[in-house]
Prior knowledge:
alpha/beta; five-stranded parallel β-sheet; 13 helices; globular
Amino acid sequence: MKIDLSKLVTESRNQASEQIDTLSTLEILKVINNEDKKVALAVQQTIPEITQVVDTVVNAFQSGGRLIYSGAGTSGRLGILDASECPPTFGANPDLVVGLIAGGHQAILQAVENAEDNRELGASDLKQINFNAQDVLVGIAASGRTPYVLGAMEYALSAGATVVSLSCNQQSPMSELAQISITPIVGPEVVTGSSRMKAGTAQKLILNMITTAAMIRSGKVFSNLMVDVQASNAKLLQRQKNIVMEATGCSKQQAIQALEQSANHCKTAILMILSGLDAQTAQQKLSKHNGFIRHALADK
Length: 300
């Protein structure tokens, strides 16, 4: 692919920071902060497209599909970060949201030369996880032209899956290839071409929005409480107790007792307290209603 970075907004010079190397520390930070303020507004403009993606992901989850991220460098790491946080936060199966990065595990910690330029590798990595038509692929690249990601997107389309692009340049190869294109235009970076900054922040916000909204729509949040949180350490055990207390208004001792009886399953403990059901019956009712506490409570 012929590379012409001159036409990419993310590679252009930022007039607000042209003299940044002459500024004091305080002034440098003010410039960065003022530019960062533009990111949320740029993301706001893409909410209609994000909505389409969330609804598509929810439907995929209900049909046994997965959400797969494909990216390189910063974009790949952001996808892996978002995917890795879904199991502890929402009790999701680790295979439900998967992050792939050009260069594999090594590239999470340090750059792997030329991996992002390998179009075939993008497709190969999807084949390795048995990507199929029930899955949703989100290709992530600030430039919108990364070969590794384009290769993954092409393979996903050939498999009959829904393909999404997340980039920060309009009319990019990725956005033209995707069925749904999310394109927050954050403008030039404070340090020219350093797309880990505003572009990376926009991508992080949007990935958070996609998975959080999809998990809420999948019944993994009650009120604004993450009731499927997995207690894998002391902090999360305490969080479970707090969540049960917040959701039900019960005492700490009642929360502890319900969690013990439900094998530390927050949803079951909450339903037990709110409905007066025993643990087994509460579990059965939750299963009947696909884990939605409100639906289970309404089932008399």
